[in-house]
Give the backbone structure.
Amino acid sequence: MSYISETLSELEKEHQAALNTAQEKMLTDLNDAQASGNFDKIQEASIVFQNITTELAEEYTKRIEEINALNHKEILETVPGIYTNNRADIDLNLLVYDGDRDYVIAFQKDELIQKTLEKVNKNSGKFKSRKHLLKSSLRLTKTLAPMLHEIGEHCKNTLKLKADIEFFVYQGDTFNASCYPPDENKLYIILSSGILERFSKEELTFVVGHEIGHVLFEHFDYPVRQILDTGENDLAPIHAMKLYAWNRNAEISADRAGLLCCQDFEAVGRTFFKLSSGVTTDSLDFQLNAYIEQFVDLEEVLNDSNLDPSDWYSSHPFSPLRIKALELFNKSETYAAFNTSISGEITEEAMEVEIKRIMSLMEPENLEEEGEHSEKIQRLMFLGGYLISNADGVVDDSEIQALSSIVAPKIFANCMMTIKGLTEDEMISEVQQLTKDLDVVLSVMQKLNILRDLSIISYADGEIDDSEVNVLYNLARLLYINTDFIDRVIGDAQGV
């Protein structure tokens, strides 16, 4: 076939629709072949599917190049300005991190997510933020917290915020801050007593600006846990993976709003240092460059057997990635457009490309890449996902479709061709051999990424049972990863 779309956004939809059609036909052919026990037809179905997807990929790439050649300006305009000035008169479309915005655009086009979101909004009703906060925490008036209100006014003016800010505090030694869903003319920021007492004015300015950023970019529009709980019968595991990836990317946008308010990158560095280490006294001599350099080579850090990097795997990017992303923003032409004291050493395009590379360290493995160990990694992902799906004794069509979303089409076709010929014990034996082969070549980060993605897949229907957890535990043990990591990922997904 040949694609006819005139813009990249329309081409993406056309390409996805073609892939979906090919996948549905393959599933139908596989079901028919499996029902009749015709192994030749199973092989034929997978080969046809492989050929179709290869052709579609070639046509997709070809059409992208044609659109690029036709009009470069048109390409830039295919990324629309999706943020309005309803809440602030600052240029949010310039400030936003591309990864955050691109996921939102994709969600807006995803009919399943939009239908699920409609159900969430219909069933949940409007959350009464102020009523809840007045019952559960202490409202900080200007008399009680004059410095905090000074920070609030500064952030309001810097971000050209239209609403007023109301502050609340609750008792807690942990360093935490959040912003509750705003009313029309007021937004609510709640701080733990720990962060309020032990962070400096400049550090709190970054924290407050960051929380306001979540409001400005309307991050409340996609409540991840509620979407997954409500859409348990409709959404595929790939939706869960994308929603959690967006969650992490959204933090990068909010960090930029925080830096705009603080305008002191060293203070931002101290903020992350305190959040990471818990040390707030002068017992350590903080040096920003040393702090950043400590995490330059994340692979080396994560491969240190004495460290436990699993703490960094959550709905938030871990601090080293955030500080590196913000360091790039601090040197960019984009930041210079908001802060005239900045020279802007890096173009916006170069900044976004590098941040995307950095953030990819927490994204699912790029399974499309052809590498020395790619096929074994994908085979492990497929078999691991299959064993999780089969933990309750039944693997239905929706779970087969889910498996197709986590491995490359060629590998999926091959796995489908061989899976019915294996007993569960044979699958487990193969998984054991694959993990043995891969253990010496995979970094700790790659292992954690694989386990995290499989954990999220298992929870994509909004619930997870003990049999699925046991499979995940066994996979973790085979990869020499502490099973606590599985608990942490699942706990984070469930909001525990």
